[in-house]
Amino acid sequence: MSGGNLKAIEVNNLYKKYNELTAVDNISFEVQEGELFAFLGENGAGKSTTINILSTILDKTSGTVEVMGHKLGIEDDAIRNDIGIVFQNSVLDYELTVKQNLMTRGAYYGYCKKDIIDRIKDFREEFSLDEIWNRKYSKLSGGQRRRVDIVRALLHRPKILFMDEPTTGLDPMTRRLVWDYINNLRKKENLTIFLTTHYMEETAEADNVVIMDKGRIIAEGTPAELKSRYTDKKIIWYADNTNENKEIIEKSKASKYQYEADHYSICMNEDVTDFIWNNRNIIQDYEIIKGTMDDVFLNLTGKEMVACNE
Amino acid sequence: MNDLIRIKGLIKRNILIFFNNKGLVFFSMLTPIIVLMLYLLFLKSEMTSSLERVANGLEGLVSTRDIDQLVNGLLLAGILGSALITIPCNALQIFVRDREENVDYDMISTPVKRIHIILGYYLASVIASFAQTTVVMLGGIGILYAQGDMYLQLSDIVYLIVAVFLGTISSTGFFMFIMMFFRNVTTSSAFMGILSAVAGFVIGAYIPLSEFNKSIQNICNLIPATGVTIIIRNLLTSGVLEHMDECIGGIDGGAFVSSMGEVFSFYTTIGSNSWTLMQTCVYIVVMTIIFVAAVGIIYPKVCKNR
């Protein structure tokens, strides 16, 4: 899926320390241009801090960062022109209308009134802004606010869009909508999207996922890689609970199994195919279920929790 | 050119927020309203009666109506002086709120420079306070004219507008310096509460400064807002006082007018030194420059590194 071979973001040995607390502890990663890159982690894992450093808001303690080829700390203004941010908590003004909010924000980038109107024109339809154009931001629903937030972040046509937990606190329907917008944008503008989230399922669509815990990167890869690396597959074998069957399972490399109502659920990391093939005469009615990103995350962070519990 | 658009955008945002927030606008006028109430309830009658007693000694050469207008002028000076403290302070609450809610992240992640952001808050507060105070002043002068001649000349009104401007730039600079150290609205509101109570006393709106002991007088006189109030008080009442002096016709050798000036602090007095109005002006301008420069140097450092 990744569009170009250019690096949108390159981070090497990044640290951020506050007095005694190390919020970001020696992390390195790369984001390719056009990619949907997800940062996954619990609250306080250091996701927002990392985004804030990449977007020039916070100073790093040490390490090097390049955003769209611009060095952080030296070419900050160039970086600022290339990035848009959807913040975790909205930063738009509740007292102002949608129009006033967007017009004043446009001015931050040095655009005059006419320029801003031109720039917003496309978005007004796509994000159905017309109906709320003159309404105060405080009077909007959560989903409408998010829409305006996204338009705000895209005003200056950035090359990278940072989204810090863009769907936290939204209802399922609105979450779907926000995702539709994001996917549309990626297709249309070849936008690089850097997402943080603690909803595991949202990372399933990402090209690359980095999992953070306590300021460190504890795993990275495509969702498929992560799933096969950090979760067991589960075989549901519909059969009677007999001693013979149990023996077959115990002889295999299953890490864990149990009988539920009319089937065995067997956890197995590798050799699933072999297991079924070798016992093809006996195992006839079965399903194989891959682990989810939830399982990956829990396996990595809550060590004692086992993947097979759904 | 782009910088100008940026600063204009920031100013517009801050002003729009202030005037769209009815609570902020109301509380910015609370102290001036209290000053007005106190005058209407008892301060005015007390001051008029004591002035009338003095006037009786001058064989009725000073008319009751003139005394009334003198007290009215002092009242308006008190209202404007306290407004020049509380309005900028309230307008700058936005500055503290933006920091508390991390709304300033939205600014510092754009190509807007830190110095533009601070300038945006400063100028927005100056413009909003200047506009609001000028409206109050012109309204007040209008009401006073409806009650009798103020003997004000057009040039006095122009000077008054300049004095109000001086008041807004100095107060905003001073409070910007203080607000920079507040990290949340709860503390800055508590500060505002204390300030609203103290403002009326510091500038001598409730009680003439001459009633306080000397060292407190000195401290109050060093506060730029008090200086501005002194200038406004002079401008608003000099017409009436001159007229009174003419009516008295030199029998007292100008003693009445000069004693008025002493009682109601017409000049900045530090220890035994009395400053001319021009010196007061210069002092205020210098203080403004110092505070604004301090903010400009400190803010970009406070802004990052949290």
Mind explaining what this structure looks like?
The complex is a heterodimer of chains A (310) and B (306). Chain A is of the alpha/beta class and 310 residues long. Chain A contains ten helices and 14 strands. By secondary structure, chain B is mainly alpha-helical. Chain B has one domain (2-304). Chain B has a two-stranded antiparallel ribbon. In chain B, a hairpin with a 2-residue loop joins strand 1 (269-270) and strand 2 (273-274). The relative contact order of chain B is 0.14. The chains are: A alpha/beta (310), B mainly alpha (306). Chains A and B meet through helix 2 and helix 3 of A and helix 1 and helix 6 of B.
Spell out the blueprint of helices and strands.
The complex is a heterodimer of chains A (310) and B (306).
Chain A: E1 7-18, E2 21-32, E3 36-40, H1 47-54, E4 62-67, E5 70-71, H2 76-82, E6 83-86, H3 98-108, H4 113-126, H5 142-154, E7 160-164, H6 172-189, E8 192-197, E9 208-213, E10 216-221, H7 223-230, E11 233-238, H8 243-251, E12 256-260, E13 263-268, H9 272-278, E14 286-289, H10 293-301
Parallel strand pairs in A: 3-8, 3-9, 6-7, 7-8
Antiparallel strand pairs in A: 1-2, 1-4, 4-5, 9-10, 11-13, 11-14, 12-13
Chain B: H1 2-20, H2 22-28, H3 30-56, H4 64-91, H5 93-100, H6 105-108, H7 114-146, H8 154-179, H9 185-202, H10 214-222, H11 224-248, H12 255-263, E1 269-270, E2 273-274, H13 277-303
Q: Output mean pLDDT of chain A.
A: 85
Uncertain residue segments of chain B: none
Order of helices and strands of chain A: EEEHEEHEHHHEHEEEHEHEEHEH
Structural class of chain B: mainly alpha
| Terminal Cα span of chain B | 31 Å
Helix content of chain A: 25-40%
- Shape, principal axes of CA atoms of chain A: elongated
Order of strands across the main sheet of chain B:
1-2
In total, the number of strands of chain A is: 14
How much is the radius of gyration of chain B in Å? 21 Å
Number of domains of chain B: 1
Question: In this structure, how is the largest beta sheet of chain B organized?
Answer: 2 strands, antiparallel
Large-scale geometry of chain B: elongated
N-to-C span of chain A: 30 Å
Helix-strand pattern of chain B: HHHHHHHHHHHHEEH
Main β-sheet description of chain A:
6 strands, mixed
